[in-house]
Design a protein that fits this description.
The chain starts with 9 loop residues before the first strand and ends with a strand. The chain is built from five helices and four strands. Helix 3 packs parallel to helix 5. It has one domain: Barstar-like (Barnase, Chain D, 2-Layer Sandwich), CATH 3.30.370. The chain is α/β, with parallel strands linked by helices. It is globular, with a radius of gyration of 13 Å. The protein has a four-stranded parallel β-sheet with strand order 1-4-3-2.
């Protein structure tokens, strides 16, 4: 059986109604879970506005793909944990205004996920709620 976070970058929990059980599946303090609203993150600008505060990025976060990658790679330095969950409520709207933004986000998040796993043995998952 896979350990929490080993499923893949995107974990679709919409059908299972598992939003309430996310703390059970990814228990704190082993996992740090941040929640964002997909309705407010329909595009890159909305995502950047939401993700910075949710994952406690530094105030100088540049709100671009390179800055996002840097901050995601630094999660373990700023928020030591065994894993990280970006839980997206209203995920059907998440980056729905731009398929290119969704593709770019998946590339950046996937690269950060690999780095965190290889460097810190920490997982990173985007849970769709």
């Amino acid at each position: 059986m896979a350990q929490p976070g080993e499923e893949g970058l995107f974990l679709d929990l919409r059908a299972s109604g598992a939003a309430e059980g996310i703390a059970t599946r990814f228990p704190p303090p082993a996992f740090f879970t941040a929640f964002i609203d997909g309705e407010a993150a329909r595009d890159k600008a909305g995502l950047m506005d939401q993700i910075g505060p949710a994952l406690k990025f530094p105030a100088y976060f540049g709100k671009n793909w390179d800055a996002l990658l840097d901050c995601l790679r630094s999660l373990h330095d700023n928020l030591p944990a065994g894993g990280y969950v970006l839980a997206v409520r209203n995920s059907e709207a998440f980056l729905s205004a731009s398929p290119k933004d969704l593709e770019d986000f998946a590339d950046v998040a996937g690269e950060a996920r690999t780095f965190l796993k290889e460097t810190y043995k920490a997982v990173f998952v985007v849970a769709l709620l």
